[in-house]
Design a protein that fits this description.
The protein is of the alpha/beta class and about 140 residues long. It is built from 6 helices and 5 strands; from the N terminus they run αβαβαβααβαβ. The protein has a 5-stranded parallel β-sheet, sandwiched between helices. The termini are far apart.
């Protein structure tokens, strides 16, 4: 058996271990309920972040957020064609700060953040300070 010692191999293993841990957490501490997920940045890389989470059946999307309503609409159409159903009833925001203001009402437990570089840190920091778990694209930034 060959052990993959590359950085990419390590990260794949880490992600797999995280998924196993998350699935165990969902069934034990949350009673098998779905994780209430908010999506910030719905298109492009964001789409490839939130759709697998929805596909697992362990997450329920409670809010979408994107500065471009056209991107949001095209992603909803794409998701419908790919079998995710009609997601248009889910609340949509154009400002992550307004989404975070309503997070308690929506019951947000976790959030994907797939935004341009200058928004990663402010959005992730605000969410984590509120106790929301985050999955962030490029979470490290050189400058704020």
């Amino acid at each position: 058996m060959t052990i993959n010692t590359s950085r990419r191999g390590f990260l794949r293993g880490l992600a797999g271990a995280g998924l196993l841990g998350a699935s165990g957490c969902c069934t034990t501490c949350c009673g098998g309920d779905k994780i209430k997920l908010a999506v910030v940045g719905v298109g492009g890389k964001g789409y490839s972040d939130w759709t697998p989470m929805l596909r697992t059946g362990m997450a329920e999307i409670v809010a979408f957020c994107d500065v471009d309503a056209n991107t949001y609409k095209s992603c909803l159409e794409r998701a419908k064609k790919e079998g995710f159903g009609d997601l248009s009833k889910i609340p949509f925001y154009t400002d992550f700060r307004k989404l975070l203001k309503d997070a308690a009402i929506l019951g947000v437990q976790a959030m994907t953040i797939s935004t341009p570089d200058h928004v990663h840190a402010p959005c992730a920091i605000k969410a984590m300070k509120m106790g929301i778990h985050v999955y962030v694209q490029k979470p490290l930034v050189r400058t704020l």
